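Forgive a beginner's question, but would it be possible to get any protein sequence you like and the tokens describing how it folds?
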Amino acid sequence: QLQLVESGGGLVQPGGSLRLACISRDGFLRAYGIGWFRQAPGKEREGVSCINYSGETLAYGDSVKGRFTISRDNDKNTVHLQMNSLKPEDTAVYYCAALLHPCSATVVKNPDSFSGWGPGTQVTVSS
């Protein structure tokens, strides 16, 4: 019963940056691969990134490659998503979740790869 909570969202201008955090207070996060996905109103869920339990394998969706970076600090039970060069089309609620399969580019593209996501954090990119 991994319990995750997202934070760090907000309002930012195009070209700006935000750093999201996914945390678990029970000490079990280090045992799981973690993924980020997002969902905008009226649109389907879109995979953003994933990282395996050790932090050695990373993957990104095509729309965020070169702009977003995922990382983890298992000593703090935290996974981060650094988002740079933000665009209006990045506007969505962002969720983190445990992975049902090992992290890969294919897993990022499959919404069914994510389980037990938190309440999400709103990211709005607008001038």
Notes: The chain has a mean pLDDT of 94.
